């Protein structure tokens, strides 16, 4: 899962990035509204953390432009605690949720997980696919209760397929959601990760759709 953080406070942006990466996300960052708007307009993100008080273009204006241009990714707004008007304006502009500063990092992560789950049509923090269980809260996966030992790339691949199970996902889409903007992307490596993941799962849950990509299917 790939997240965009738009925050001009360098220390807070770094803290958010570290916490998100530790939770298994890929993170891109922008320090002003113009760069944030550009990234959100041109790159595919599973969710955005957007500060209201940004230089060059404020967060509400960034959000309004995204929504006007048909960008539908979930957006978690960061607001000042005493500025209730920002919260109202943010929700009206198309924010999916908000959290007031200062905040606990665990709350941001929990709200982000919920936004991503809901966007994919999942209500629970645990996603099931046959005997496979993905706990989005702990970033762990199990088969019939037995923990799977996954690398960070394997987990990201599995999480994306699980969130979009039943859908055909192309290799290029997987590549875009597994790596940040600075990574030298090669969609051929996706085949390698899929092969490793299949071996670790030990059951036929990842279907290859010839010429199109992959699909996570339930075994019952």
What is this entry, summarized?
With 220 residues, this protein is of the alpha/beta class.
Topology:
Blueprint: E1 2-6, H1 10-22, E2 26-30, H2 33-42, E3 47-51, H3 59-68, E4 75-80, H4 84-93, E5 97-101, H5 105-119, E6 126-129, E7 132-135, E8 140-143, E9 146-147, H6 152-163, H7 171-178, H8 188-201, E10 206-209, E11 213-216
Helix pairs in contact: 2-3, 3-4, 6-8
> In CATH, what is the class of the largest domain?
Alpha Beta
β-strand number: 11
Question: In which order are the strands of the major sheet placed?
Answer: 2-1-3-4-5
CATH topology of the largest domain: Rossmann fold
Which strand-content bin applies to the residues? 15-25%
Query: Can you identify the CATH superfamily of the largest domain?
Result: Response regulator
Share in helix: 40-55%
Low-confidence stretches: none
Query: What overall geometry do the principal axes of the alpha carbons give?
Result: globular
The overall pLDDT average reads 90
Tally of discrete structural domains = 2
The CATH architecture of the largest domain can be given as 3-Layer(aba) Sandwich
> How many strands, what sense, and barrel or not for the largest sheet?
5 strands, parallel
Q: Please write the string of helix (H) and strand (E) elements.
A: EHEHEHEHEHEEEEHHHEE
- How many individual helices? 8
Structural class: alpha/beta
In whole angstroms, the N-to-C terminal distance is 26 Å
């Amino acid at each position: 899962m790939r997240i965009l953080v738009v925050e001009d406070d360098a220390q807070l942006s770094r803290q958010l990035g570290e916490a998100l990466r530790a939770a298994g996300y890929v993170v891109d960052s922008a320090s002003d509204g113009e760069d944030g708007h550009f990234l959100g307009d041109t790159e595919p993100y599973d969710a955005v953390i957007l500060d209201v008080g940004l230089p060059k273009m404020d967060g509400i204006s960034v959000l309004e432009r995204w929504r006007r241009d048909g960008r539908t990714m979930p957006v978690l707004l960061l607001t000042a605690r005493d500025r209730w008007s920002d919260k109202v304006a943010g929700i009206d502009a198309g924010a999916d949720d908000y959290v007031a500063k200062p905040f606990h990092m665990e709350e941001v992560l929990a709200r982000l997980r919920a936004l991503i789950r809901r966007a994919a049509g999942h209500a629970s923090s645990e996603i099931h696919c046959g005997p496979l269980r993905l706990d989005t809260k702990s970033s762990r996966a199990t088969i019939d209760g037995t923990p799977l030992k996954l690398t960070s790339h394997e987990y990201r691949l599995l999480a994306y397929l699980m969130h979009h199970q039943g859908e055909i996902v192309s290799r290029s889409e997987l590549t875009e959601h597994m790596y940040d903007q600075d990574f030298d992307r090669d969609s051929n490596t996706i085949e390698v990760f899929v092969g490793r993941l299949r071996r670790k799962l030990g059951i036929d849950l990842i279907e290859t759709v010839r010429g199109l990509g992959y699909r996570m299917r339930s075994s019952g």
